[in-house]
TrEMBL record:
Residues 414-434 are annotated as: Disordered. It is found in: Cytoplasm. One of its GO terms (molecular function) is xylose isomerase activity. Its EC number is 5.3.1.5. The active site is at 99, 102. This is Xylose isomerase. One of its GO terms (biological process) is D-xylose metabolic process. Binds 2 magnesium ions per subunit. The gene is xylA. Its cofactor is Mg(2+). InterPro entries: Xyl_isomerase-like_sf, Xylose_isom_bac, Xylose_isomerase.
Amino acid sequence: MTEFFKGIPQIHYEGPASHNEFAYKYYNPDEVVMGKRMEDHLRFGVAYWHSFAYEGGDPFGGRTFDRPWFGEGMDKAKLKADVAFEMFDILQAPFFCFHDLDVRPEGATFAESKRNLEEIIDYFAEKMETSKTKLLWGTANLFTHRRFMAGSATNPDPDVFAYSAATIKSCMDATIKLGGANYVLWGGREGYETLLNTDLTREADQAARMLEMVVNYKHKMGWDGAILIEPKPQEPSKHQYDFDVATVYGFLKRYGLENEVKVNIEQGHAILAGHSFDHELALAGSLGILGSIDMNRNDYQSGWDTDQFPNNVPEVALAYYEVLRAGGFTTGGTNFDARIRRQSLDPEDLILGHVGAMDICARGFKAAARMLEDGKLEAARQARYADWDTAANQAMLKDGDLETIQARVLADGVNPEPRSGRQERLENLVNSYL
């Protein structure tokens, strides 16, 4: 045991009446909702990077945190892992997620970085033998080091492409070894700053070829996890290729990969793309590519990704409503891609940020389940389109052409009047569940 979380108890469910801040008020992992335990619905994950690698910096200021594991070398990396698994146990978190750079020191060469990753993954594996916490997903950091300033798969330098492919293989191997449920591709630098030096066709083809290799390697290894792309707009690249769910799906269709790859959608990224979280989730569900989510929020007055813990029950409820409408998570889950604020210095802050977020998600999720089970919202949606279900209108949609439809309008004297969308009624209905 380390001393970092000394004195902080394991978090248990005590119910809404509890005044104990170190307790869950709404998240009861064993509560059965829609025939399944809440823990199995929500599949909470802790983000290794924000919880243990983040130093408290922002775009205008450097490190504010003082952690005993900060520094280079494998001893520091193992101490970080010790603290991480202690926190997983305190929270009773079912999952965690990581990038390679979060968990191991950067080597002077690729071979050294690979050895460091393999050593720390072996250390993780030992810890996971006595821990309930599993791996939700792994990924490669292909954006922080200066070698990736012009992208990884889309880079004009073939050596960077090769280095990226080698890194992805190592991270996929690590994910598979730890029994990970998903592998995520986060293209933070896959975009461009100016068209003056960019070949859009070439870069798209390169990105697709890298993704094809990832998919092929998954099948070669016989791994049944999911490959996920995380849509990300504008940050850090000015023109990001994986801007939103629609853009990613268009890319997948263009290269015939829509049946092989799904999406990991982040609330903060949805906002930066000019959408709502539930919009992105609904679209992914409609397209059949909803895989997993990163749960956080942005500061709506800031134009960058602030990665704050969720605190808005109505927003969360609408998000989980779309997850449930899409059939719920299979390999995916709820990863807290969220960090405490740079003035939140204490170990307790790190624990309580997650406790509060898990309670907010539980409240929103239970409201979403009530909405879906009650069926009133879905009934209203179906009623709005009910006329399309008649035989005549189905035939018009399937077999009609402009000439026959015009003839029908003339013969029947069709002169439609607008119909109310009843938005306010439906908003009131949603609010009645919260």
